[in-house]
Specification:
This protein has 336 residues and is of the alpha/beta class. The chain has an eight-stranded parallel beta sheet with strand order 1-2-3-6-7-8-9-12. Strands 4-5 form a two-stranded antiparallel ribbon. The protein has a two-stranded antiparallel ribbon with strand order 10-11. α8 packs parallel to α9. The longest helix is centred in the last third of the chain and has 16 residues. The chain is globular and about 55 Å long.
Amino acid sequence: MSIASLLPGALGFGTAPLGNMFRAIPDEEAAATVEAAWEHGIRYFDTAPFYGAGLAELRLGEVLAGHPRDEFVLSTKVGRLILDEEEDPSARALGEKGGLFEHGRRNKIVDDYTADATLRSVEDSLKRLRTDRLDIVWVHDVAQDFHGDEWLAVYETARTGAFRVLQRLRDEGVIKGWGLGVNRVEPLELTLDLDEPKPDAFLLAGRYTLLDHERALQRLLPAAAAQNVDIVVGGPYSSGVLAGGQHFEYQQAPPAVVAKVERIKALAAQHGIGVKAAALQFSLAHPATAAVIPGATRPSRVAEDVAALGETVPAAFWSALRQEGLIAENAPVPTA
């Protein structure tokens, strides 16, 4: 089915920060942030077992348990099992993403994309989320950034395991849709070339943003649009650097990225708009994009995201970005 028709709006809520990404967040602050998203009318929530070794799912589930299940759309991910035994979170082998979630729970995280692990992961998530069903399930991080040179072998395990299980669950009506949730374009291009199984949508984080979009524009987004595979854009602020943070690709932002952000900020100020408005509206302007899901750890941030989506961005701003080579010539921009 079309994920766009399932999603209740263009703005969703990403919960990676609720897994204590970069910093330890008090439970009360996490709960207040999810509640703020609800109060602002957000009804699509995305999470994953990986986020803080189950912490984000537990926190999200606690708040959503107080709201009618039929009133929101919920997605989580498979590919990693959370065990009862403990490990040192800062010592996990996470490819390019070392140190991510070191403030999360100490439960051991094991990569497993097989059919059996997929079913177990779904069951575990249902318990942590305190719900009887999931709407969308993404296969998480079958890409180079976590698996290096082994990524194609990992992808193949997922193709014959997780992909097929999720397609069956969708066909049986247990879930409404499935796809991949990754930070890289290549696994998605590969999946679009498969005869079967066929995903409903992709969650692409960090690769269709104001800062980084040229690779996705070349082949992925046109191919996805042609096959009616919707794109949910994760990480629209590029790990925070576009929203006043210090991180890009989940690490300290390099000087070249900071310099580019400063140029974008200067143009935004010149045209009297916020960078968040530019970032969210740019990601949503492509016809393949169904929704955008920024993360937040403070209630005030959610209010900013909602306001940014409604802000009027003048056409002259997009023209200025193009003239300065800050966005690709062929990138669609919002029309007033």
